[in-house]
Structure formats: structure tokens, C-alpha cells
What does this fold into?
Amino acid sequence: IDGQPRSHDAVADVDSQVMVVPRAELLAFLEANPVHWRDLARLAEKYPYFEWLSLKKRVEQAVRKVYELWPTADLSGALKLLSPEFFAKQQAELKKWEKEGRQIVRRLSRLRRIEPLAVSVEDDKTPSWVRVVVLLDRVDYHRDAYTLELVHGTSTPQYNVEEVWVMSYNG
It folds into this structure.
């Protein structure tokens, strides 16, 4: 499921059948049937907020909104989608770059895939979270606001960039 190499050895103590399912078909099935994602299902059972298909939609909304707002140097329009800590840290960085005379150019060209990486189901005192990998195409660089000279990154589009996002919930 995670795309990592595995051995193909199998041992059975009783008569058994081995079924080989292509990864793409298995992932499509699991997306349509999130109860089979054991940890995601546990989390969704405790907090419906984490049901995979709705969570995936919220992650997509957050990614698109952050990419839309980033060049404005004001992420307040995405505040409901971001943790207060992440918002404060990113907003401070944006303000710092603005004071340095940098213009942020950040565009999402294509959101290719969102997949779960890790899940933590906690109690009412500790936030539960799911970590996802977002595969996307983007343009991301800084340029001088006056000369438009490139000061960080590259203006060349970047393809298949992996970003890790964390969605949390305080129950």
C-alpha cells in the first residue's frame, strides 16, 4: 500500500489461496471503503471529522487555499483550515519576507494525490492527528519586489513535489 518494496515469500499453515491485487485497484477500493484503513477507521470512529473521504476533501481545500493566499502574504482567509501554531509561524515568515522586499510567487499547478502516512488516535487531552503526503505540481520562488530579480528558488515549474501536511483534532 505504501509503495515500498516487499519480499514475495508467503507461508501458510493450512490450505490457502493467494490473491494478488494491483496497487491502484486496492487504493481505489480503500478510498471507496475507508473502514478498511484500520487506523483511519479507528480515528473516524472516535472522531467523524477524520472519516477519510471527508478528511481528504478538507486537506485538498487547505492546500488549494494556502497556495491561493500565499502570494498575498496574508493567510487569514485560511485560518479555519490551519492550526493556530502553523498559521502564526507562516504568517511571521511571510511578514519577514515582505519587510525584506521579497515577493512570493507560489502557484499550485496540479494536485495529483493525497494519501495517508500515519495516524495517531489520542484521548480528550491530547490531539489526534493524521499525517498525509500531498503530491503536486507547483511554481515556488521569491523575487525582489522592485527589480523582480529571482532571490530564492526557481521559476521553473516543479513536478511531483511531495509535501507532508498534518490534520489534527482536539476532542
